[in-house]
């Protein structure tokens, strides 16, 4: 009893929680629909590289490709911009300052134009093509001075950004060598010049970045080294191709995904309802609940097509201990599964049961026997069997009035191929029809045939033989003259008369026939009596 109360209390507590949740959703449904997960804001600073110069479609610039484009990009870059110009921008441009303040991620590409202008790459290419010597000493001095100034500007830029936004990660790209290592001039020499300049310059990026929190150097140099033919348009265009921009975006993705692993999407809770059996049945039908690999805290069901709010009614809710339940009526049934204590994680599904049929009544098996012809006949008589629209497995008949058990005597049973048979004698005939393999469904019927008459007339009764007169004249007799003649008496005749010997034989024949019939009757009576006694 105590356990039942505790279980009921748990059900009520869960429903109370569901009630609060459902009421919250009902009153705030429209508001919840308007709230969407905001994408992170990415602010891109720098020169023509993040700007997308030379690309057929600037929307394919690498800032737009970071995190597969699932960001809101504010691109504040400008072609030809130097580190000094970038510093001026972030300290004087209100829009840039506001963008940095709201940024979730910041990318910086700077120093490229500082070095290109100091190295005077176009002049170096002309010197190479003219076959003249490059003044490496002057080149190194000018590049070193430019690199030093760019480093100072970069430090101030990072400091300023951290004052505006203290926690957004800053992704600082170092400088790639745009010239491939080829044998043809001027690319061969330009590649060597680029390597000489960048060897020391790129070492400075980590030194500067290490002084500021959450600031990371992305190694563009290594990503492009040896791959300039595919990643750069080619001299005199030093800008990345589409593939080059994809490589720059991948550098950012690798870092950001490591820093902020993707949040696993909330599991989608679904129910799959099935029934067994799924063929017509008298019931019950079992409804199975498949929670698609998730473990619910509670499963409940209601008859009818319901919504989540309908499950607040405790009286009409059925709580499951397992993952199935039985129903005995056709109709719709709704299942609600709750996967979290707060009721936020849930799934609802409705299924319709339509394969329950009324129980079938046990059929009544009867036989109707008829004869044809029904008038007097010399035979044969046909006995027809009507099984009342039921199809028997077997039909059989026996002569006489029989019971079911008599048909076990197979030797005396006549099996039918059709639904009729002929008889040539009057008497009773019994038919047994079997309608099931187990023999439980059967019907027995007896009919009597009395209309067969004999076609042979009984022999006429023979008259006893009469004494014939002897017309032979008697032999002459000698008269005894001494004797007196005897007077002969006249006898009157009154018809034929049996002799004494014939009359006695006839009497014996009549008495013998009577005794024979009496014996046969006695034997038949005894046989019927024994049969009835055996049946009882």
Automatic annotation (TrEMBL):
Residues 455-497 are annotated as: Disordered. Residues 477-490 have a biased composition (Basic and acidic residues). Keywords: Membrane, Transmembrane, Transmembrane helix. The keyword Transmembrane applies. It comes from the Bacteria. Residues 44-246 form the SGNH hydrolase-type esterase domain. This is SGNH hydrolase-type esterase domain-containing protein. InterPro entries: SGNH_hydro, SGNH_hydro_sf. The chain crosses the membrane at residues 508-529. The keyword Membrane applies. Residues 459-471 have a biased composition (Acidic residues).
